[in-house]
Amino acid sequence: MANAASGKTRPKYLSLPALLFEIRLPLPGWVSILHRISGLLLFLALVWLLALLDRSLASEAGFDAVRHYAGRVPVKLALLVLVWAYCHHFCAGIRFLFLDLDRGVDKTTSRLTAGIVIGVSLALTAGLGVMLW
Amino acid sequence: MVERIVVGAHYGLRDWLAQRITAAIMAVYTVILLAMLLGGGPISYAVWQDLFMQGWMRVATLLFAASLAWHAWVGMRDILMDYVKPAGVRLTLEVAVLLVLAGTLGWTVQILWR
Fold first, then answer.
1. Beta strands in chain A (DSSP E)
2. Lowest CB count within 10 Å: A80, A96, A118, B54, which one?
């Protein structure tokens, strides 16, 4: 074996355990993939949300029905996930706009702003969640 | 010195820019709507309906919906280009996304002006 002959242990990249436990996505990577996932979620929920808006604006009975429907626990949880998706997409989007303008591109700043994006969107979700329920 | 002549229809640049401009429009709308909803008292049907019946709100919401449709189209197309390789499947999904977005835009108009 070449390894044994040279006396070096080579790093083992891209094995399943390495992917699961060793290689960790840096914070900006998390912001990026969550931006994509949250965008996809919002697209998939679009028709449902529009249906709720339609019903709630159509009549007083419809408004009450939507309010009652939104009070059910599974619906509440789904809406909370969508609130998070919106907040994250919003905050991460603003960060990306600044990156487009070459602001905050260096490693330290970009990691800091990535952490801020994740933290602020979670805080906003919690705040809005408390206000709505 | 080589003169580079940029050819093509510039779809990429146009969509990239459009995604950012529509994002800014939606961000402004979001902040305004949130301020209006959180600034007032409890939201009854009367308050809710009144808000969306105002002329400027209808136009702003339509602008938001149009921005959303374009923004989501660019985003969904990016996702499909990254993960869906067979051309037939990708085209089918792209058409489906376009139909959903066009449909929701028409539906929004119906909701706002009924």
1. none
2. B54
Q: Give the ipTM of the model, two decimals please.
A: 0.89
Give pLDDT tens digits for B46-67. Answer: 999 999 999 999 999 999 999 9
Q: How many residues would you count in chain A? A: 133
Domain that holds residue B107: 11-112
Q: Give contacts of A50 with chain B, Cβ < 8 Å.
A: 104, 107-108, 111
Q: Is B45 within 8 Å of chain A by CB? A: yes
**Contact status of B30 with chain A (Cβ, < 8 Å):** yes
Counting every residue written for chain B, the total comes to 114
In chain B, count H helices and then E strands: 4, 0
Q: Which amino acid is at A86?
A: Y
Within-domain flag for B3? no
Residue the block writes with tokens 């994250």 = A88
